[in-house]
């Protein structure tokens, strides 16, 4: 994949909704969003003038949504609620590390969505919705039947798939479970002919070190804008 291809990641929500996730897109020719029960992300055509101007019918009043990347002009009565600065990381060649204690990784099913929703939001609240698993495959590790670690796919576009919802129950950190899941999900993405990427808070140094250890490199810093009307 060339550096030119990676420029899709400067506007990942828009390019996901224009390609792989086109069937989920709701909105106008210049701005689109995911369904409210799938993902609270809005993407827009950055080459258009005031691309968010007509997205209002698809966003409820006081519903927070996120714009990833450069923030276009906001329509009147909209405001920025927060800015989250993230490292956008890409992995062209995975550094596989044999686990000390291999865990059984299973693909999670539609019937397990409520459990996934509860588990992820207990650790990383606010981003994973009940139907977020419609975006891609999610995998988990269980201990005595209890879900203790998870990772999966979120935004997907031509040649690229985002790894997301990487989290481990606090009682099971330090056992390499997240690393095993990252390797598993990354290899599945490579098998589809795609390159894995991810977003992580710039302040989350521990996670960044793990991802670097696996071969991910920071492509750029990218903001996530939480906006609302």
From TrEMBL:
It comes from the Bacteria. Keywords: Transferase. GO terms for molecular function: acyltransferase activity, transferring groups other than amino-acyl groups. Residues 92-229 form the N-acetyltransferase domain. SUPFAM superfamilies: Acyl-CoA N-acyltransferases (Nat) (SSF55729). Pfam families: FR47. This is GNAT family N-acetyltransferase. It comes from Chitinophaga agrisoli.
């Amino acid at each position: 994949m060339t550096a030119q291809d990676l420029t899709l990641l400067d506007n990942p929500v828009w390019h996901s909704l224009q390609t792989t996730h086109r069937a989920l897109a709701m909105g106008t020719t210049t701005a689109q969003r995911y369904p409210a029960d799938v993902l609270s992300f809005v993407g827009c055509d950055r080459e258009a003038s005031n691309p968010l101007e007509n997205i209002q019918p698809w966003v409820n009043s006081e519903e927070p949504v996120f714009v990833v990347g450069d923030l276009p002009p906001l329509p009147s009565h909209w405001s920025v609620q927060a800015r989250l600065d993230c490292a956008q990381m890409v992995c062209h060649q995975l550094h596989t590390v044999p686990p000390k204690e291999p865990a059984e990784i299973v693909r999670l099913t539609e019937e397990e969505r409520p459990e996934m929703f509860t588990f992820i939001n207990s650790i990383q609240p606010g981003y994973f919705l009940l139907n977020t698993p419609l975006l891609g495959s999610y995998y988990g590790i269980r201990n005595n039947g209890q879900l203790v670690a998870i990772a999966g796919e979120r935004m997907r576009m031509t040649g690229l798939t985002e790894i997301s919802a990487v989290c481990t129950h606090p009682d099971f950190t330090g056992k390499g479970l997240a690393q095993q899941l990252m390797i598993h999900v990354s290899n599945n993405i490579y098998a589809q002919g795609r390159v894995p990427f991810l977003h992580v808070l710039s302040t989350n140094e521990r996670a960044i070190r793990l991802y670097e250890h696996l071969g991910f490199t920071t492509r750029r810093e990218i903001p996530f804008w939480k906006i609302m009307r």
